[in-house]
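re: ur question from earlier - yeah i can do the single chain one, its not a big deal. heres the input i used so u can compare w yours
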Amino acid sequence: MLSDSKAFSGFAVNDLQKANEFYGRVLGLNVSESHGLLRLHLAGGSTVLVYPKPNHSPATFTILNFPVANVDAAVDELTKRGVRFEIYDEGSLIAWFKDPAGNILSVLEER
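and the output i got, formated as tokens:
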């Protein structure tokens, strides 16, 4: 029944404007906002819906993973942009950080 549906994922935040700033300016993603919703337009044509939820509780799992060629370089660049990493061991293949709503994200090295 749904095999031809172009499904997409979504997650909640407590402040849509902060999310727009973080995902658009800090992470450099292509974002659009309409009807009180934020859309993250990811490489490869995927879209993620970000919606406001006043009583939001952050996810306790990684909601978005960003594959990168070099984790160390990605961590350095994102740190310069103000991202604070929660877990990162130098030379590790993955590093976790949070968005302004406390949701967990990662950069992970593709090999």
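Strands lie at 9-13, 30-34, 37-41, 47-52, 62-68, 85-87, 94-98, 104-109. not sure if urs matches, ping me
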